Amino acid sequence: MSNVDIAIINYECGNIHSARKAFELALSELNISGNVYVTNEPEVIFKADKLVLPGVGAFPECFNKLKSIKGLRESIAERVYDNGIPILGICIGLQLMADKGYENIESEGLGWISGSVENLCPDDKSLKIPHMGWNEVSFKKDDGNFSDLNGEDFYFVHSYYFNANNNDNILATTNYNQPFPSALIKNNIIGTQFHPEKSQRSGVEFIKRFLMWKP
Q1: Among all residues, which ones are annotated catalytic?
Q2: Which residues touch 120 (CB under 8 Å, ≥6 apart)?
């Protein structure tokens, strides 16, 4: 892999600065040339080799912002579905890939991975919501791309989680009184509930594996 151009989708809901820095560092450590673009322009998205859909905020507002930018949703879908390039959703970016979200109101999602986004309600009421801070991520041991990160700690900030309909789409789980999916995968689509761009060394290692990933 000699060159990788990455498009981080800017729809005014993402942790753009941290994500850009983390992807630039990962490229440098892999000794791969390439560019990291922060963009909402379809022509840039069509030239990119990898897409990143970050996200911070509430599901309905973020989905509406994504839809409101002319041609953005359609160009992402075309690259992902018609061209098969890999995409990484981060936090709300992952959640938007669900069929529906139930944050404040019922809202449609992109419908890329079957499931819904629901309230994180631990039985132990001493556990605070949002789930914020470092927590262990257990990756599937039969996955050859990310499984060597099994047991590493990553950084979380969320009050809702992706309730996947198909267990085959669950790449990793995390326990917060009860287990929840913390990474999901389907074909060339992958998403994390944790923030790799805020997860220091573990996060950079995850991003490096995403950049090398060939679904």
Answers
A1: 91, 195, 197
A2: 129, 130, 131, 158, 159, 160, 161, 176, 180
